[in-house]
Amino acid sequence: MKRSPSTLNRLANSGLGVVPAVVGVAYAVRADDGMPRLLTVPAVLGFAVLAVRGYRLGAAWDHARITVRGYLRTRVVDRERITEVTDFPALRWTSRDGRERWTPLTVFVTSTGEPLTTRTYKERAVRELRH
């Protein structure tokens, strides 16, 4: 089963990278010297990656494993290694070498100002993960 937010929510998630990238491009266009322009390139590229990852936030699972796409990394965890789905929500799991791990499910974090339908969708997804 694959769970990702609505298109509007996905666009909002990508805003974390889009807005600074646009500001960086505007700064580079207005910069007088070549060095500030050159220094904005890696920043804009980094924010562009963050925007794409924000848009692709989600979780997918089947009987064997769960894949969590976050802002910075994608984790694949075997279901047998998961010890708990917390209220945050996050996965608590044990790595192959026995270390306790924690992977936040950023895509399912709820906030007080979001629409009821979005909140319900996220809560239902966390309930499904727990089963």
What is the number of helical segments per DSSP (H or I, 4+ residues)? Answer: 3
- Kindly name the structural category: alpha+beta
Indicate the mean pLDDT: 94
What's the overall geometry? elongated
Please state roughly what percent of the residues sit in beta strands, choosing from under 5%, 5-15%, 15-25%, 25-35%, 35-45% or over 45%: 15-25%
Element-by-element helix/strand order: EHHEEEEEEH
Note the gap between the termini.
12 Å
- Low-pLDDT parts are none
Tally of strands: 7
Helix proportion range: 40-55%
Spatially, the strands of the biggest sheet line up as: 1-2-3-4
- The Cα radius of gyration reads 18 Å
- Biggest pleated sheet: 4 strands, antiparallel
How is this structure best described in words?
The longest helix is centred in the first third of the chain and has 24 residues, at 7-30. Helix content is 47%, strand content 23%. It has helices spanning 7-30, 34-55, 116-130; strands at 2-3, 58-61, 65-69, 74-78, 82-85, 90-94, 100-104. The strands form two sheets. A four-stranded antiparallel sheet has the order 1-2-3-4, with no helix packed on it. Helix 1 packs antiparallel against helix 2 (34-55). The protein has 131 residues and is an alpha+beta fold. The mean pLDDT is 94.
